[in-house]
Amino acid sequence: MTIKVLIVDDDALVRAGLSMILGGAGDIEIVGEAGDGSQVPPMVAEHRPDVVLMDIRMPDVDGLTATEALRAGKEPPEVVVLTTFHADAQVLRALRAGAAGFLLKDIPPRELVEAIRKVTAGEPILSPAVTRQLISHVSGAARSRADRARAQLAGLSEREREVALAIGRGWSNAEIGRELYMSVATVKAHVSRILTKLSLNNRVQIALLVHDADL
Questions:
Q1: If you placed Cys at 176, which of 1, 105, 166, 186 could pair as Cys (CB 3.0 to 4.6 Å)?
Q2: Burial class (CB in 10 A: 0-12, 13-18, 19+), 76
Q3: How far apart are CA 30 and CA 61, in angstroms?
Q4: What is the pLDDT of residues 52-98, one digit of tens each?
Q5: Does the predicted model carry a pTM greater than 0.70?
Q6: Dihedral over Cα of 14, 5, 81, 116: its sign
Q7: What is residue 32's three-state secondary structure?
Q8: How many C-beta neighbours within 10 Å does residue 130 have?
């Protein structure tokens, strides 16, 4: 399967570099480039990308605002935020908006290509630096947020809760299956039910909810 990617960055040189890196992968097709978040909706409607590689700081509409608008739409593409900045507020806002990944621009080319493939396969991607920062931030979340998160998770069955906690630990479907003695297909079914019950977009948001609940 060819993965269609839309690159969004206000720096033409960065866009050219990303196009060269990703275009060299046989299973990735660059379907378009945008220099501002305001250009994203019409380009997504025209090209129907699988993944949008999104910068944060842009002159008119920033990448976080564009991500929120995009993910709120019907059947949105996955969004991977790629930036030189990794402040707590930016990370959390991007992930809560439904972004499937948050990567720093110093990521090696090979890892960037692999990240695009993983996101397309439903696996969230965070750079190690962002992961450490995120865990540190969420562990100190306000008590009210923890209470709300626990109330949401209380609506899950015991088995679904076990799967949600495993996702919060960063386990893959295969790892969850081994630890909980179930097939990968069964794990995927549980994940789908969790997403539906909690009205969430992806596994990253499940993990955030688990961390919010301080579990």
A1: 166
A2: middle
A3: 22
A4: 999 988 989 988 899 988 888 888 899 998 887 666 567 777 777 78
A5: no
A6: negative
A7: strand
A8: 22
